[in-house]
Amino acid sequence: MDLSNNKKDLSFIERLFHLNEQKTTVKREVLAGLTTFVSMAYILFVNPQVLGTAGMDKGAVFTATALSAILGSVLMALLANYPIAIAPGLGDNAFFTYSVVLAMGIPWQTAMAGVLVSSVIFLIISVLKIREIVIDAIPHDLKLAVASGIGLFIAFVGLKGGGLIVASKSTLVTMGSFTVAGTWLTIFGLIVTGILMARKIPGSIFIGMILTTILGLVTKLIPLPDKIISTIPSLKPTFGVAVAHLGDIKQPQLWAVVLIFLLVAFFDTAGTMIGLAEQAGFMKNNKMPRIGRALMADSVSMLGGAFMGTTPTAAFVESSAGIAIGGRTGLTALVVGGMFALSMFFSPLLAVVTTNVTAPVLIIVGILMAQSMKYIDWEKFEIAMPAFLTIVGMPLTYNISYGIAFGFIAYPITMIAAGRHKEVNPVMYILFFVFLLLLYVINVLPK
After folding, report:
1. What are phi and psi of 313, to 5 degrees?
2. Average pLDDT in the 224-245 region?
3. What are phi and psi of 445, to 5 degrees?
4. Among candidate residues 129, 116, 89, 148, the one with its CA nearest the CA of residue 314
5. CB 3.0 to 4.6 Å from 441: which of 116, 252, 393, 425, for a disulfide?
6. Chain centroid to CA 372
């Protein structure tokens, strides 16, 4: 009787995920899902830490992070049948906290309303397939520059948060003090995680976080938590806040925020998905099959996350860890969603994951994102200048939107000067004026 039920279950899984067609097994897919989860589980603790800096309730953000990851990963599994996990992205939460809330002085409640509006627009343009049109219009080099710039920005945030660099009146920034014990905790985490990454150990970032936390607990730099397992934190502090503050979107600055969220989300997920599809061997004639369904999964989870109280979701590059050991179907993503569901009972661990623990994560992820720079065509100045302005503009202005604006404004100018105006997509000319307006709105109009 049990064997009969087992065969029926396997038959159902086969019909749903086409394991034989992809030459994989249930065991391999489950192992791939566990590997992917361990590789990206850090977001459960880093996202509340980053958004908590903006004034949001960390417990509620923890729950919203897990739920949006469950929603996105399960939808990816069932709609697109890809081994790609989805969760709130580091670039978006960094932009939300450091560029919008802290730099622009916009309350997190209002900023979250901006995330909701961009999520709705995002869903609409995904349904209408406008998303692919805009993605294709933006030159490959600028996409790489945006990814690289966000990487440098995230690393800068990590270096600052970990105490490795501090403000300086004479040089703007300088090296932090090594007499501060917390700084050594960051250094330990960075070295250990770096060694694990160099050794290509699956889940290196998560393991590095655990080891750094253990050192902090042993040295009493981090207080012991009262418990490890608890009930799931309430979503009440953040749930529906975006809807309640939709009226605040009348501010011109908020429309600039909506635009940047759209653009960052555009590049983040699409670029990552294509890269993962290349790794897994899914690409056919330079196109990713079922990309519309995959983008829909991301769009719906982004909208759901905005309602619950977290920044936009994205396809996680850490999915490559699961793909590397054989994950080829949506069953891998489904397992990731299940693991995020189990993790919701471990919220007390938020208390031990301090800024010094998460700082190495930000630096390491920044390094990974910055690798995109090697593919930029630096030999052509008309490409190099806008790419460079995009990359350095983000960390030096401490604002992702400024970096994107600098590059997108410079690109049509340098291409025209080089006599290559026919190669510039008309959409880029539109974005040229959009970003000029954005800089005017952010810096000139009264807040």
Report:
1. -85, 165
2. 93
3. -65, 145
4. 89
5. 252
6. 15
Q: What is the DSSP letter of 230?
A: -
Q: What are the distances in angstroms from CA 272 to CA 147, 208, 257, 279?
A: 10, 23, 22, 11
Residue pair 331/17 in contact (Cβ under 8 Å)? The answer is yes
pTM, rounded to two decimals = 0.78
- Contact between residue 221 and residue 357 where contact means Cβ atoms under 8 Å apart: no
Model confidence at 10, in pLDDT bands (50, 70, 90)? Answer: low
What is d(CA 5, CA 401) in angstroms, rounded to the nearest whole number?
Answer: 55
> What distance in Å separates the CA atoms of residue 22 and residue 438, rounded to the nearest whole number?
46
The span from the CA of 162 to the CA of 327, in Å, is 35
Angle separating helix axes 252-280 and 108-127, nearest 10 degrees:
50
Question: What is the C-alpha separation between 83 and 32, in angstroms, rounded?
Answer: 8
Strands (E), 113-221: 165-168, 172-175
What's the alpha-carbon Rg for the chain, to the nearest Å? 22
| Non-local CB neighbours of 433 within 8 Å, separated by 6+ positions | none
DSSP 231: P
Cα dihedral across residues 211, 95, 62, 55: positive or negative: positive
Among 256-260, 277-281, 430-434, name the most confident range. Answer: 430-434
Q: For residue 315, what are the β-bridge partners?
A: 86
The residues, any chain, with a CB within 8 Å of residue 429's CB and separated by 6 or more, are 412
Whether the CB-CB separation of 305 and 68 falls below 8 Å is answered with yes
Name the one residue in this structure whose structure tokens are 């945006």. Answer: 146
Q: Does the structure show a pLDDT above 90 at 185? A: yes
Give alpha helix (H) positions in 204-352: 204-218, 241-244, 252-280, 291-308, 319-324, 330-343
The confidence score (pLDDT) of residue 7 equals: 58
The proportion of the chain whose per-residue pLDDT surpasses 90, expressed as a percent, equals 48
Number of Cβ within 10 Å of residue 172's Cβ equals 9
Of 173-177, 218-222, 401-405, 421-425, the least confident: 401-405
* Element at 315 (helix H, strand E): strand 313-315
User: Which residues does 250 contact at the CB level (< 8 Å), separation at least 6?
Assistant: none
Counting every residue written for the chain, the total comes to 447
- 351-401 pLDDT, tens digit per residue, is 888 889 888 988 988 888 888 899 899 999 999 999 999 999 989 988 777
